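User: My collaborator and I are trying to settle a disagreement about how two of our proteins should look. Neither of us wants to argue from intuition anymore, so we agreed to look at predicted structures for both before our next call. Could you fold the first one, then the second, and keep them clearly separated?

Assistant: That sounds like a sensible way to settle it. I'll keep them separate. The first protein:
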Amino acid sequence: MDSSIYIIHSSSDAERAKRLIEYLQASSAGPLRVQSSSVPEYSVDAEAESSEEIKSALYQVDKVIAEVTNAALTDPEFNFELGVAWALNDQLITLVDAEVTNGNLPQMLNRVTQIAANGPESLIELAKKVLPNYIESEAGTAALATFLEAGVEHEAQTASGEDRQKTGAVDTLQGIPAVLPDAALQDRGETDTYPFFLEALNAGLTFSDCFFYREEISDFCRELDETFGSFVNSLGGNWAGLRRLNDIDIWSNAMVNLFETLPQEQQGIADWYDLGFHLSTMLNIAGRDTFANPEQKEMVKAQWDNAMDAFRYSAAAADISPENIDRIQSMLENLIGAAANRDFSNVAKSLELMRNLAKSSLIWDQRQHQAL
């Protein structure tokens, strides 16, 4: 059975990555195809390397291993590939160096399989997880010892200051935070650790606009940087890396992953984002008046009904009163009703009401925290 692996690593960790590749190859009884960030002979073809090449490689492989070291966490290219793998491949495994503390790990890795690179047992565990035809062999044992020696050499270099480390730093690419460590989040205080509901609502509105008009918008990033991009970063994501892909489907998938990392008490953020997304969908359907086209009427009605059902579900989850839910639904349905009765001021009214509800929900949430 053939298998394939992509190893993400910092350029300064290329030698360690090479030794990891040699260990995995020696431990596989079947054909193994390996690609890596920058190890010669295993990296994506330098002449063809692009965001699309990396995206394709990370999507198609069976497993992705990220070698997480302090040097890697401050490497823009590592963070870029890590963000892509996290969004695209549900078979991501992190091999975390002993020098990396939990507070320095990106928040988005909370629910990713993590293996500590602290001895032969952990490397054997990794090999068993990623290789369908794992075998023990003399060549594998020797390669494992070589990899562990590389780790000892790396620790010695770090201790002597030969490696330039930025432990716990917030890396930036084009001025946008790429990875925000948990420690940095804790320093911000409880009330602003996560984005407010209004930010979530606005991010959902903006992203849904781009999603709806995806065939007509040429530069998604410019449209999304300020509102949606800031929202992604505030959740601990990597907008700087994701934006390079210019792929709205990947971004949509990344949001699902990000929301899964939220603690239960912060799931309201996801509800308000969804409210913005579904509200925008319905406003855009109404704005195009696609119900008037007989050929599209059934398809558009199904799209509208799905968006309305999802909107009402998220509104209930966000503790919006049934009266306000019905009020907003009435405004929206007026926009697709009889042409003579349509009141297009309902567009602004529905948006204003939702934003006011988001603000009032935030005030209520803050009061609850203060009461605890």
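The second protein, kept apart from the first:
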Amino acid sequence: MMKKQDDRRWRVQAGAIRAAALALFLILGGMIYALGDLPLAHTETVELGGIENLSINYGHHTVILRESETADLVLKEYMNRDNPRYYARISRSGGTVQIQRGRRPLFFWNWKVKVEIYLPRSFQGNLRLSNSSGSLSADVDLLDYRSIDVNVNSGTVFLKNISGGSVSVHVASGEMDIGALGGNSFVSVSSGRLRIGSITGEENRVKVSSGRLRIGALEGHGILELSSGNMAIDRVRGRVEVDISSGGLELGDFSGKGAFNISSGNLTLDLRDLEGDLHFLLSSGRVDVTIPKAIPFNLDMVTRSGTVRVKEGLEEVLKISGNSTVLRPIGPSPERTIFARTTSGDLTINRR
């Protein structure tokens, strides 16, 4: 009886040792491949003739978009553990091609995958890119598509220049960097961080529910919505409509006109030139406007509460608080008007 128990105990211990050795082998193998180049496991060519919609959703891994030398899409998958079950699933239905990640091994913590997708210049239909984790980057510009839709639920995305008839960028979490957006654009950030070099289009909508967004330059008509988080645009040219319910918005080097509705939160506006009227509806919060002293303007103001100030440097030349109505020129022969309606909150106009 004792001998059988000893044999059973030895087999259990031996099995545990083999399992531990296998786990160590897999971990070390994954580390080795993480430090070196992954071997090419799978290559597939996809004809895009007659295709109008292309969807790429290969999450959890490193995906790199490159330019194809032919009129076909080429997919290359590099893996440290090769198995046809792990290859991408490519489906074609009518005018749509979808590329999705294949199956994963049972123990995938050390499974390393890199994917290269070569896109032909000749394809100019509707392109949809999704990343649920991992990283997505492009070595080439994605230009002249009918539409482009980029969705990030997690992970990181680095893209160069994007243009299309319509461009949509959504960040639910994670980080995204884009060189430039061309075309009518819709940008939304629910959480995470998004940086865009420039947005140029006739109609552009930018929405931040939370997180951080920074745009180098915005040109055209911009509709900016901020319910929480922070948004900053370094250079603005055109007409803007701003709705802030919370959070902070900074608009620098501003030339144009606009309407600003602030329920709460903070707005900082640095004017270079006033090309039309400005309208401020302030329920609460704080607004700071800087305008060159050489630009005259009419001040049309109605306050129910809060404070409105006009300053020249450190000198306060006008202060209005409480229930007041004011209509007066600031500077000689003004052609533009700054309208302000305040229920509460503070508005400061600083002439520099």
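Some points you might bring to the call about the second protein. The two ends are 97 Å apart (CA to CA). The first strand starts at residue 40 and ends at 47.
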